[in-house]
Design goal:
Structural class: alpha+beta
Radius of gyration: 43 Å
Distance between the termini: 66 Å
Largest sheet: 6 strands, mixed
Helix content: 40-55%
Shape: rod-shaped
Length: 587
């Protein structure tokens, strides 16, 4: 079991190191080959939506302050490329998709020429790229670019915009790398969702179902945010996708919170803390509805409220895990490891703007990687825990089987006791009945055994019984069962022989018992046995055989001991025993 735990921890450690390595590489790329368009490098203007795209000369741009009142009109943003460190002969503009009705991009060249490209909500054409980005390539001309102008119609908030300038080569590299990172994370989430849901169904654990739902929600969020779904549903481009992602993000936080809280037993977490944490998660899910629907100026205020609730939820979950861990909860330890990276990620992106890093994936890619990490960790932890439970269950079953076997065995001789003998001969008699064969029961009683105990002591008597038992168990097999029924009485059930052959077999048993060497226990004193044999064709009842064998044994005792007496049932409606056959000891 320690090997399983070490392997799981080693895998998790490698994945964590790989994630940090990828993040470090990604973070270093933007600073070399791209320029981020910030508020300080953009001038803005606000007009009505009736303003034509070719009316740039008539616009009055303001290069200071923040724009306002554009939600029902058009927001124009202009960047003077002559003031930015970019290659003006090779320019690609990449913008994170957001909530707007239409986006027009106007490339202005030094010779006075303008080139226009546009997308609208529901129609991104060939401009969308994996990672939630829209790409506009400036057409190559003999004259260099001097400015790029962006026009947004019905934009929800300019604070949600992130735009970058780079070369065509760098754009291709970043798009491919971002697609690979997103594909890997989504694959892990898909596997985690299927695995956790199937595990929840098989082991009937509620928190695994919640966690599987969370992984599925994050998978759907990742597919829509990354715009992969536009391959199948291009009409969802733009506002609908952005609104859906907002709601799914809030729902995912609520599902993750519920998964954590339901994994902790009432003994490990106070009921009030559990209810308060669930209420926070539910509040975030409910806030996701207006946050997804609002497109006006109030979206920034709602986003701030959501950020505070998320931070409060993270603190509440951390407090619950800490409390339960200190009270010995193994589930809390597993969730603490799983939540450490996602909680740190969520907390970090609430206080820092990282949307320009990680190939443009920014905070969204960080969340996706952290979610994949959480799913991987919990899947490994659940596998390890249930593997341990399975091993414990197997050990318990093995111990139960050993206990049952011991309960069916005589502790002195190791042969079956009466209970084990009756249970063992039942499957032995079934084929005998079906094939119409005979079966016989031999009851064996050691002659004058009480005198052995009286003369030599009970320890010597036990040695005699063990020696006889070892001799009798030689016949134990598929068609023969041997038992000690109690005291000095043994039993042997055999199938498939009858008549003279049975008589020879029973007498051979008697002779083998008489040949046992007991000199180490009682000296030269001989030990003999009397045997009663009951034979019946197609026996229907063990008790039937036992009564007849007991009668035969009594007759053997009465006739002088050290002999066998056989009785056989006649095949009639009522059991009428045949006359007894006696085989006496040789003189």
């Amino acid at each position: 079991m320690s090997g399983i735990g070490d392997s799981c921890r080693a895998i998790a450690a490698r994945v964590l190191l790989a994630a940090f390595g990828v993040a470090a590489v990604c973070w270093s790329l933007p600073s070399v080959a791209e320029t981020t368009l910030l508020d300080g490098s953009l001038c803005n203007a606000v007009t009505g939506r009736q303003q034509a795209d070719n009316g740039l000369p008539s616009l009055r741009f303001h290069c200071s302050g923040s724009p306002a009142g554009y939600q029902r009109g058009s927001l124009w943003l202009r960047a003077d490329l002559r003031r930015l460190p970019v290659d003006r002969n090779d320019v690609v503009l990449m913008i994170h998709h957001s909530r707007f009705d239409r986006l027009a991009v106007i490339f202005s060249y030094a010779d006075g020429t303008e080139q226009r490209q546009q997308v609208s909500s529901g129609n991104y054409g060939s401009h969308w790229r994996t990672g939630g980005q829209i790409t506009f390539e400036a057409p190559a001309r003999n004259a260099p670019l001097v400015a790029v102008t962006l026009r947004f119609d019905a934009l929800a908030s300019h604070n949600l915009l992130h735009a970058r300038l780079m070369t065509r080569g760098e754009s291709g590299v970043q798009s491919a790398a971002l697609a690979a990172a997103i594909g890997a994370a989504l694959t892990l989430l898909l596997i985690g969702a299927i695995y956790n849901l199937s595990l929840a169904f098989s082991v009937r654990r509620q928190f695994l179902a919640w966690h599987g739902g969370w992984a599925g929600c994050m998978l759907l969020w990742g597919v829509i945010w990354s715009e992969i779904h536009l391959i199948a549903v291009p009409g969802m481009a733009g506002t609908i996708s952005a609104q859906t992602c907002t709601f799914l993000a809030c729902l995912a936080i609520a599902l993750a919170t519920t998964s954590v809280v339901t994994s902790l037993s009432p003994a490990d977490l106070p009921r009030l803390a559990k209810k308060a944490t669930l209420a926070l998660g539910g509040g975030i899910a409910l806030l996701g509805i207006p946050l997804a629907l609002v497109r006006g100026a109030g979206i920034d205020s709602l986003a701030n409220v959501a950020s505070m609730l998320i931070l409060a939820d993270l603190l509440a979950v951390a407090a619950c895990l800490t409390w339960a861990w200190r009270h010995g909860s193994a589930e809390a330890r597993d969730f603490a490891g799983a939540w450490s990276l996602p909680m740190a990620t969520l907390g970090f992106i609430q206080i820092a703007d990282v949307d320009s890093g990680l190939w443009g994936g920014g905070s969204k890619l960080l969340i996706l990687l952290a979610a994949a990490w959480q799913t991987l960790w919990l899947s490994i932890a659940a596998t390890r825990r249930f593997a341990r439970l399975r091993i414990e269950r197997d050990h318990a079953r093995a111990a139960e089987a050993r206990a049952n076997e011991l309960a069916r065995r005589d502790p002195l001789t190791g042969l079956y006791n009466r209970r084990g003998f009756v249970e063992t001969i039942a499957p032995l008699l079934d084929p005998v009945r079906s094939e119409g064969a005979s079966a016989a029961l031999l009851l064996i009683d050691i002659d004058r055994f009480k005198s052995v105990n009286d003369a030599h002591g009970h320890e010597a008597g036990d040695m005699v019984l063990r020696c006889i038992a070892r001799r009798l168990e030689r016949w134990e097999g598929a068609m023969c069962a041997v038992a000690r029924l109690g005291g000095e009485e043994f039993a042997l059930m055999i199938a498939g022989i009858e008549g003279f052959a049975l008589a020879r077999f029973a007498d051979n048993v008697r002779l083998e018992i008489a040949a046992c060497d007991h000199r180490g226990a009682i000296g030269e004193r001989p030990v003999t046995a009397s045997i009663g044999v009951a034979e019946a064709p197609m026996p229907s009842d063990f008790q039937q055989l036992y009564r007849l064998a007991d009668q035969a044994l009594y007759a053997a005792k009465q006739e002088g001991r050290n002999r066998i007496v056989m009785r056989r049932f006649a095949v009639v409606t009522a059991p009428v025993p045949d006359p007894p056959t006696t085989i006496r000891a040789a003189s």
